[in-house]
Amino acid sequence: MDNRFLSLIYPSAEKKESALISGTAPRISEDVCEELGLSSMLSLKNGRVSEYFTSDEEVIRYRQKTLSDLIEIPELGEALGAAIPVLCDILELRRLSEDMRDASDTYLYSITEIELYISAVDLLCERLSAMRDRIKSPAFKSFSDYIFELSESEDYRSLSESVKKLSAKVREVRSITVGVNLDSQMRPVSAGVISVNSEKFKSGKLLDKVLRMSFKNDALTCIAELSPFGDGESENRREALVGAFNRAIEDVFRHSVRDWRRICSDYVLDNTDFLLKILPEIEFVSKCASLISELTAKGYDCVVPTVCDKDEKAFSAKALYNPDVALRIDERVVDNDFEFDSEGKIFVLSGPNRGGKSVITCAAGLCQAMMQLGMPVPASEARLSVVDGIFTHFPEGAEDTIDKGRLGEECARLGEIFDSVTEYSMILLDESLSSTGAYEASYIAAEILTGFAGVGCRGIFSTHLHELAAHIEEINERSEKDGGVKIDTLVAGIEEGRRSFKIVRKKPDGKSYAKDIANKYGLSYEDIKKRIKR
User: CA–CA separation, 357 vs 501, rounded Å?
Assistant: First the structure.
């Protein structure tokens, strides 16, 4: 077979090589994936989610086509799903064989590996042939063509026939006949394998055999066991005998072992490696497609986003929702229209606790991250430009605050973001600066927001600081002098004292929620007067 380039997630070897060069991939860490819930949703075993992010628009579109095939042809995902355990078994066999000292064990492992390899190719060939005409993506067209060519090649057919014969020959061995030469005093002087048998030896009655002296009549009936396998024998004596037998068996199969290793090196490894090398890709696209199918099965929209030019800095999503929350709760998740535009590249999102601020903040991050994996996104419509990084500042526990204190730790982490953020980045801050009083927090938050506006990035600052909205005009005036982008405000909606989880673009009124709550529980002044009069 030729050495053509095959990948389910990269359109060319040059694109894959470019992705591996340091600094070209977007800065979206595994910690960010964990915070957003993406790592748990995909749950990869053969890689990390952060390894698959890309800022290359061509690569994203290539993956979109790959995943469209998987989503539209469920049988394709089932075929890959059936092949993954077989390929994982091959990897495990290779790992075990590296630790094997016994040549006969290595020999048997090699046979098993090739049997698994043939079963994987046969399985994929059979499954893919039934859907060949429905496959549209360049990735799966190339993949299926390679599988078909491989299975139809003369080398593969020859290998398949050879392994059946060789496997049958090896697996029919159930016992060996050992001959021992004795000297005149009945002492053993040499020993060797006389025959390899397809039946196990039988234990006979020693007295009958000796009295009848019929040793030649039944070669597979044992008249006396070798003592190292008896009870009470030392482990060293057992190992010595086992070692001797193994060396003898290796001698018997020496030519077969040598020929088999030659076959492995000349053909098999060259052809198994292409499947093993793309195993992480197979798992990745399979998990992505499964996630989308799971969401659509629950009645949620997932749309292939329009990939916009990087300089447009677009983010517009209709009916955006948080897929992590959608999968974890039974009730319907509230969706929201969300857009970064010229009047608001950064939003200060305020509202009551548990009012949906964190949910929509993560939803925006997940939408961007899923797009840059090449996935459909959790919305009914979406237009997105790539970002060069997603930087989060979410609440953490107290274990990292011993040296600096909670506020110091928060400020240190925020400072690290400024070391990396650019105008093409996305920042997501959730309840930052909640460790200090409202006055100090509002002052520091205003400084931070002015800084992010000056950078020109996109982002959300989810906060309990309602009074921060009063400083937005001042922050905008300050940052615009340095060419900064505009900041606007969002409010987590409240309807009749009840959290609606709808996000509204308006200035917050810190009193409105308190008033609704007071009315709901009969604690307004008018209600209290009525109670007092009673």
Answer: 8
Q: So where are the chain's domains? A: 13-25+43-171+258-284, 175-234, 300-533
First to last CA, the chain: 93
Query: How far is C-alpha 189 from the geometric centre of its chain's CA atoms?
Result: 61
Amino acid at site 33:
C
Alpha-carbon distance of 322 to 345, in angstroms, equals 20
Strands of the sheet containing 306-308, edge to edge, are 306-308, 381-385, 315-320, 336-340
Distance CA 149, CA 36 (A): 42
Q: Between the CA of residue 377 and those of 269, 282, 357, 389, what are the distances in Å? A: 38, 20, 20, 18
Q: For residue 350, with 0-12 CB atoms within 10 Å meaning exposed, 13-18 middle and 19 or more buried, which class applies?
A: buried
| Phi, psi dihedral angles at 495 (to 5 degrees) | -125, 115
Residue/partner pairs of 35-38 with CB below 8 Å, 24 or more apart: 35/362, 35/392, 35/394, 36/324, 36/362, 36/365, 36/366, 36/369, 36/392, 37/322, 37/323, 37/324, 37/362, 37/366, 38/324, 38/366, 38/369, 38/370
Residue tagged 């307004």 (tokens):
524
In 11-96, where do the E strands start and end? none
What is the C-alpha separation between 482 and 500, in angstroms, rounded?
Answer: 38
pLDDT per residue as tens digits for the range 220-248: 666 666 655 555 556 676 677 666 766 66
SS3 annotation, 401-445: CCCCCHHHHHHHHHHHHHCCCCCCCEEEEECCCCCCCHHHHHHHH
CA distance 405 to 411: 10
Using DSSP, state whether 382 is helix, strand or coil: strand
Specify the 3-state DSSP secondary structure of 218.
Answer: coil
- Using CA atoms, how far apart are residues 411 and 68, in angstroms rounded to an integer? 43
Closest CA to 180 of 165, 172, 190, 170: 190
429, 461 contact by CB (below 8 A): yes
Sign of CA dihedral 405, 406, 407, 408: positive
Residue 512: phi and psi, rounded to 5, are: -60, -45
What pLDDT, in 10s, does the model give residues 459-509? Answer: 999 887 777 877 888 899 998 888 899 999 998 876 655 555 788 888 876
- Pairing state between β 346-350 and 487-495: parallel
- The angle at the Cα of 154, spanning 153 to 156, to the nearest 5 degrees, equals 70
CATH number for the domain running over 300-533: 3.40.50.300
Joined together, the tokens standing for residue 50 give 């952060």
Q: Is 165 exposed, middle or buried (0-12, 13-18, 19+ CB in 10 A)?
A: exposed
What is the predicted pLDDT for the residue at 1?
Answer: 53
The one-letter amino acid at 391: F
